[in-house]
Amino acid sequence: xxxxxxxRILCSPAExxxxxxxxxxxxxRFILRHPEDGLPSDAQVAFVSRDxxxxxxxxxxxxxxxxxxxxxxxxxxxxxxxxxxxxxxREIYQSLHARGxxxxxxxxxxxxxxxxxxxxxxxxxxxxxxxxxxxxxxRAWRPLLGDRTPRDLAGQHAVVVGWGGIGQxxxxxxxxxxxxxxxxxxSGAPVPQARxxxxxxxxxxxxxGADWLVLACPLTPATRELVSRQALAALPAHASIVNVARGxxxxxxxxxxxxxxxxxxxxxxxxxxxxxxxxxxxxWAQDNVIVTPHSAGxxxxxxxxxRGLFVDNLRRWARDEPLAHRLTG
Length: 329
What we know:
By secondary structure, this protein is an alpha/beta fold. The chain has helices at 16-22, 50-53, 63-73, 91-98, 111-126, 129-137, 165-176, 203-206, 229-234, 252-260, 302-318; strands at 7-10, 30-33, 45-48, 80-83, 102-104, 157-161, 180-185, 196-199, 212-215, 240-243, 266-269, 289-291. It has 11 helices and 12 strands.
């Protein structure tokens, strides 16, 4: 019987101990490679764990991340890359994909955490937590009375954009809080729980009745600046936006103007058109805005879930079976 060839995996030194324990014990032998081993790498597979990207963004790449990216670029035997995130819109992944390297994502690993963050944003805005935090810093006892009194969440209406794993979990949690839903999705196929379901092109028609606009969609040509100046103008002045999708889903300039002009109630923003968000951005200083550093999906259980998805796909790859969550197009 012909022995199976070894499979060489590029991974981070920090990830290696846990990965060794999780690797299949049957089948081919797995050999781990690190960027420090030298270039070009003989790795056929690369695992991009969270510690690889660290504090890097699509716009600012740290030296350690750049070193790993270069190891992948200069790996002539590379055939497959697995990414810790649900999206693969960074230039390096697109470049490798164009080269013929299979790219798979960790879709689903952080769905519950992102949904919890989105609901945390809704609750923080609804319960005026930013105001209360400012009062605490001022050591001021200011009850939420008069024009500071929050509106009941029960009975309010949310438009959820995107109905994948994250959007569905957000919808469940919003309904548990007593809100009703409309859903905007790629297909426009009816969602039984929703008052209305519409394709992306009909978003503006659903906004006049919205108390909340919650964005949980992927960034695609159809969703880039989907929340346009016209869409923002269609929202009621008391409405708030929660964005755990991508920064380029919103016309950020128009959003800043609407918030500053009192034409929106508030916003919880985890993603931006430029990341890190520049210190000069007016969003930092807006009283009705909560800014978080693209951390909606961060949780201490994520890496084990991501590793599990990678190892499951590794079994498929070793058996020449189709990979799950593979980038297409």
